[in-house]
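Sequence in, structure out.
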Amino acid sequence: MIDSQEITLEGIWNDEYDDWYSNGEEWIYHAVPTGKRPEAVYDVLVKREKDGAVLEALMQHGDEELPEFQEFLLCWIAFLGTKSGRDTGHFLLEAVDLLNDTSVASAFAKKYAAVHPGLYLSILENRNGADISDMVSLGRKAIKMIPKNYIVYSRAALKTAEYIVEAEKNRENSKNTYLMEKKYFLMSVFI
């Protein structure tokens, strides 16, 4: 099997073949066995050396949905969670966003918080339709897990505070609504 490193050494992998990159990413996704796919895709995306090389472009390249993509996405996150670096962090944040499942994303954030504390912030910023109380709970976990000397700690704390304020407003609004409904009910009984 030819890997991306061999392709690079043969001189095929360069800027003249930008179309080939996209096709190559898809080709590697299909050609490499499931267990080795995350590393192979990672190698291709990193060797591309272009800002904006993203997994979503691979998803949207072909005419059909990529087979086993959800399973790949979970393996991709697990693979990236053990690596560090700018590219890795970028790919990891994208993958967690693609999950579109706050509970699974928060489990990954907890697992990889030591290497990628920005995962918590990404989840807090994107919310993905999660309940406000879940976001407050996640924010409190983030504050416990992220070292205080990190900038991402301050941003996560601020976002958590925003969710707490929103939760309090919702609680007040629901309390006022309840009182109004009770008042109208009592008026209808006595009139």
